[in-house]
Specification:
CATH class of one domain: Alpha Beta
Strand order of the largest sheet: 3-2-1-4-5-7-11
CATH superfamily of one domain: NAD(P)-binding Rossmann-like Domain
Strand content: 15-25%
Largest sheet: 7 strands, parallel
Order of helices and strands: EHEEHEHHEEHEEHEEHHEEHEEHH
């Protein structure tokens, strides 16, 4: 199988690409290496890997690679609300236009597996789980673009879309701006964090389970095509306060302060059901506690100024 992964040197791609190569797939990565990452170096010995240092907005290149692929996994993205707000034109071009370009040019026989985000649920109802039929109400440009392209792909009916929970865990292309990663880093280095709107909830997912979701879908594509799937840890619909308590179990010295004054710029607040993808046989393998323990070790290696999206 020939697989095209755009953004394949990113946070998820740096975990996924080696796993695809272990299956003896032929993998082509298009990435502009925006953050100077070196995450695929250990894969370069593999004869089945091709790396193209280029921009996914290069439509001639993208068209050529689409035509050679059995499966397309478009990970290239300006990820997160702050980065999209900083570059709204780039966000439109990369997070919507180039995905539409791929969808409009692939054949019905080619797999397309797209990572959306469950941040599109925005603000949910207290105590009510968001499933794949819940209206999407994004609260940021990042969420809005993801929701719009998710709908476009589902209307075509020729792809699978994931609504990923907030991802965490160590990756060769690390990110410290994700909530669990950020709070765990602060717990280790600063020993404290101030919480605004501490009862706001969201769902979480380890980066290796995000990677495994793509592998699972490749194996089960025919029964999943045309559908969206929430992907997250079903036992980790947690408030920020509950997340801090989970971190404190692994780092007892950590203290958090709940502020009654001030507002979190990220207004997402929802809980999510992952039953639909679990009914296809997918199961997460890495718990939140596993990930926090992993991050404790990872943060002996790295420091904040090396890794961020903004």
């Amino acid at each position: 199988m020939k697989i095209l992964v755009t953004g394949g040197a990113g946070y998820i791609g740096s975990i996924l690409v080696p796993e695809l190569l272990k299956r003896n797939y032929e993998v082509t990565v298009i990435d502009n290496f925006l953050f100077g990452q070196q995450s695929l170096l250990e894969c370069c010995i593999n004869k089945n890997l091709k790396i193209l240092r280029d921009d996914v907005r290069n439509q001639n290149l993208l068209q050529d690679e689409i035509s050679k692929s059995d499966c397309i996994i478009p990970l290239a993205c300006l990820t997160g609300a702050p980065l999209c707000s900083k570059d709204p034109v780039g966000a439109q071009q990369i997070n919507f236009d180039q995905i539409k370009f791929i969808a409009d040019r692939k054949s019905k026989d080619q797999m397309l597996i797209f990572p959306c985000t469950n941040s599109g649920y925005g603000v949910g109802e207290e105590g009510v789980f968001c499933d794949e039929n819940t209206p999407m109400r994004p609260v940021s440009l990042y969420g809005k673009l993801k929701v719009e392209i998710d709908k476009y792909l589902l209307d075509l009916g020729e792809s699978v879309t994931f609504r990923f929970a907030t991802i965490f865990g160590a990756s060769p292309r690390m990110r410290l701006d994700l909530l669990v990663n950020d709070f765990t880093y602060r717990a280790l280095i600063d020993r404290t964090v101030v919480l605004f709107e501490a009862n706001f909830k969201r769902n979480y997912l380890h980066v290796r389970d995000a990677s495994n979701a793509f592998l699972h879908t490749i194996d089960n594509y025919s029964k999943m095509v045309g559908e969206p799937f929430n992907v997250g840890l079903s036992d980790a619909n947690l408030s920020k306060k509950e997340l801090c308590e989970s971190i404190k179990k692994e780092i007892p010295e950590f203290q958090y302060v709940i502020s009654e004054i001030g507002k979190d710029p990220d207004q997402r607040n929802y809980i999510v059901s992952n039953d639909k993808i679990e009914l296809t046989g997918f199961k997460t393998k890495v718990t939140l506690s596993d990930g926090i323990r992993e991050l404790k070790k990872a943060f002996q290696v790295i420091r904040r100024n090396q890794y961020s999206n903004i």
